[in-house]
Amino acid sequence: MYVNMTNLATGDLETTFKVGEDRFLNSLLVSANGRICVCGDETQKPFPLLVWDLTSRKLVYDLRIPHHEFVTRLSAISDDGHYVVSVCRELHDASPNFIIVYDLQSGTLFKKWKPESSSCSIAISSQGGCVINGLENTWVLVWDLSTGARRFTLRGHSAPVDQIRMEEQGKRCLTYDSRGRDRSVRVWDVTKGECLAVFTPDQEFSCCELSLDGKAVILGLKGFDTITTLLLCRESTFEDEMPKLTCYGDPKLKNKVFDMSHENQ
């Protein structure tokens, strides 16, 4: 199997490397700085975490824990590629899964947490110095990446949160249930453990994101062909925030229509 890395700004193929003849990757994480790739290999039992250096295109760590397997779909990597966090479970044991953090500079176990309930979502921020995870009991936990202590237990959702989005500085996060059992979208201040805003749309939504600065929520509502943007005006007004808004992408392309059919390519 091969892995291709593409530059999102230019669309150019940056690098291709071979991960092995008999590997089947079931997850793929790339750090924001483009230096580290972490993937899960479904062909090996129990599931390991494979860490690749994208500059040298070499496998640097094969992370395993005896009698345990990583739930690789529940994993995240820090923007700087320093840490990877993953949910892990003990084989042949029905007890709740737990959380593992590895230091990717040394390949060593950095933190291990065992919440009261199994985890169903995970996120990490080196800049914010925290790990955030959603539990099956509907709680959202905030862990301190340095001390390992639990900072906050965030309550308010009526169903387990399976999606977490963090802003660039790691100070705010967005949580929601993509399965629609709880239609509310919540934005939290993870430095204070406070809920900043809650929005429950009348329609189901198909996607939801938090802006890089943590000041806007972008929603795709089912049945609508437009994107809905919510501004967080907790300490300001809509009129104050409007002048700060900038056009996404190239302003010259605003309102232009493109024919993407094959006949016109």
What can you tell me about this protein's structure?
With 265 residues, the protein is mainly β. Helix content is 2%, strand content 47%. The chain has a four-stranded antiparallel sheet with strand order 3-4-5-6, with no helix packed on it. It has a four-stranded antiparallel sheet with strand order 7-8-9-10, with no helix packed on it. Strands 11-12-13-14 form a four-stranded antiparallel sheet, with no helix packed on it. The two termini are 31 Å apart. The model has no long low-confidence stretch (mean pLDDT 88).
Précis, in short:
With 265 residues, the chain is an all-beta fold. It is built from one helix and 21 strands.
Helix/strand order, N-terminal first: EEEEEEEEEEEEEEEEEEEEEH
What percentage of residues falls in helices of 4 or more residues? Answer: under 10%
Distance between the termini: 31 Å
Residue stretches low in confidence (pLDDT < 50, at least 5 long) are none
- DSSP summary, beta strand count: 21
* Main pleated sheet: 4 strands, antiparallel
User: Looking at the structure, what is the overall shape?
Assistant: globular
Determine Rg (CA atoms, Å). Answer: 20 Å
Q: DSSP helix count?
A: 1
**Pairing-aware structural class of the strands and helices?**
mainly beta
